[in-house]
Amino acid sequence: TTTQPSIPALDQRMAKAWACVNQTGTQAIRSSFGISSITDDGSGQTTFNLSPAMPNANYSAVASVGAGSAYNNALTKWNGTPTTTSFKVGCLNTSAGAYQDDAQFSVVVFSN
User: Fold this and answer.
1) Is the full-model pTM beyond 0.70?
2) Residue 91's closest CA among 68, 112, 109?
3) Which of the four, 2, 57, 76, 90, has the lowest number of CB atoms within 10 Å?
4) What confidence tens digit (pLDDT) does each residue in 47-87 have?
5) How far apart are CA 51 and CA 19, in angstroms?
6) Phi, psi torsion values for 10, nearest 5 degrees
7) How far apart are the C-alpha atoms of 3 and 102, rounded to whole Å?
8) With the C-alpha atoms ordered 57, 108, 33, 26, is the resulting torsion angle positive or negative?
């Protein structure tokens, strides 16, 4: 077992949480760190629950979707106001003008 040193400048540059989610069918976390659970908010929309909580709600959550041809023009956007313990994002197909599920929906969270 090793103990990681605390380097404040480095701590601010590392991801605080991340997850890869399958939104199709029953949404499920494929793999994660710092994401305690998810909530299916409808087609292509997911709430990510953070644990531990972020120090404030001014964090950055970056999301990406799979490379399937149906999602070539998909983008992600915030749905609602993030809190220290959760945020919502969605996979929006701009051509269809509608949210749609993605099998490889990923998020990364950065905070100080």
Assistant:
1) yes
2) 68
3) 2
4) 999 999 999 999 999 888 876 555 555 566 677 889 999 99
5) 12
6) -75, -40
7) 37
8) positive
Q: Contact 22/69 with Cβ under 8 angstroms?
A: no
The structure tokens listed for 95 are 């051509």
Angle at 109 between CA 102 and CA 88, to 5 degrees: 50
Question: Considering Cα of 53, then 59, then 65, then 66, what sign does the dihedral take?
Answer: negative
Q: Are strands 45-50 and 105-110 parallel, antiparallel or unpaired?
A: unpaired
Task: Give the residue ranges of DSSP H helices in 18-100.
Answer: none
> Tokens 């998020």 sit at which residue?
107
| Strand ranges (E), 1-112 | 17-22, 28-33, 35-40, 45-50, 60-64, 74-78, 86-93, 98-99, 105-110
The radius of gyration of the chain's CA atoms, rounded to the nearest angstrom, is 15
What's the Cα-to-Cα distance from 29 to each of 5, 72, 88, 95, rounded to whole Å? 29, 22, 15, 27
- Structure tokens given for 22: 């399958």
Q: Which two tokens stand for residue 60?
A: 């950055």
